[in-house]
Amino acid sequence: ATPTSIMVGTGRAAQMGVLFRKGEALQQLKDTKVVAVDKTGTLTQGKPALTDFILAAGSDRSSVLAAVAAVESRSEHPIARAIVEAATGEGLMLPAIDNFTSVTGFGVQADIDGHRVQVGADRYMHKIGLDVALFEDEARRMGDEGKTPLYAAIEGKLVAMIAVSDPIKDTTVAAIKSLHDLGLTVVMITGDNRRTGEAIARKLGIDQVIAEVLPDGKVLAVKRLKEQYGLIAYVGDGINDAPALAQADVGIAIGTGTDIAIEAADVVLMSGDMGGVARAIALSKATIRNIQ
Ligand code: ADP
Ligand code: MG
């Protein structure tokens, strides 16, 4: 492609709310066969709400929820906000906490009156030597409903299972369909539970799910997809997406996402959803075709 045609193409894209930070991306998009997509905040709203709170026998609901929310009040994760809002919405007072620690990709812990409180994914419970089989049926059901199952332990004893649900953005179904119409394969990459990821993928017709990815695993997943398929685009919004955005042949950031994601990306979508991805690819094909 000539510099002039690239300028015309990127100018046209800008009118459609697709900002090319690198002209090279316009040339690469036309040959892209796979679009890898972050789940939370890209396919979904990134605003989960607490939907279920199931106690183990012998535990008191208010005191467990207050303890869990107190620990989560120090976390930046969207899941944390959902739990804190649920507790404060019930008028619960959150106790003081000490020794807060966030175990990235697993969960959080802190002490309340000298008692250790731990909250997180099943893999966090496994890491601290707890078995979550008690809630196996509930966790499976919630996962299949697209909810994220979490667990709480106090003093090394499992006390509750919690589920949060993050609604899919209104525009996501159409965005995925447009990508399929262009013949692309769509892959979801998520740190979330496998069943949860697969349930959401099923609703959206997403072709492949890479789930339970640890924080630095997204880059590795993109590397593997490149080896397998060739040119890869990656769409994401979060701080934890930046390395994958840089690793992909074309990194595409959601404009309403974090500055760090935007800086790492080659393309920025102004609309706040992924509708622009198919538009950018179609435009890339049209631009490059016109000048060959
Ligand atoms: P994602 O952004 O896809 O959720 P993360 O690596 O941030 O990926 O988190 C992976 C999983 O770790 C979450 O789905 C959740 O189960 C658990 N987790 C992370 N942070 C917290 C937290 N503050 N409270 C409870 N669980 C958490
Ligand atoms: Mg995200």
Write up what this structure looks like.
The protein has 292 residues and is an alpha/beta fold. The protein folds into two domains: 3-45 and 168-290, Rossmann fold, CATH 3.40.50.1000; 49-165, Calcium-transporting ATPase, cytoplasmic domain N, CATH 3.40.1110. The protein is 43% helix and 24% strand. The protein is built from 13 helices and 13 strands. The strands form two sheets. Strands 1-13-12-11-2-9-10 form a seven-stranded mixed beta sheet, with helices on both faces. A six-stranded antiparallel beta sheet has the order 3-8-7-6-5-4. Strand 12 (250-254), helix 12 (259-264) and strand 13 form a beta-alpha-beta unit. It is elongated, with a radius of gyration of 21 Å. The model has no long low-confidence stretch (mean pLDDT 95). Bound molecules: adenosine-5'-diphosphate (ADP) and magnesium ion. Adenosine-5'-diphosphate binds next to helix 3, helix 5, strand 5, strand 6 and strand 7.
Question: Brief overview, please?
Answer:
The chain has 292 residues and is α/β, with parallel strands linked by helices. The protein is built from 13 helices and 13 strands.
Keywords:
292 residues; alpha/beta; Rossmann fold; Calcium-transporting ATPase, cytoplasmic domain N; 2 domains; seven-stranded mixed β-sheet; six-stranded antiparallel β-sheet; elongated; binds adenosine-5'-diphosphate; binds magnesium ion
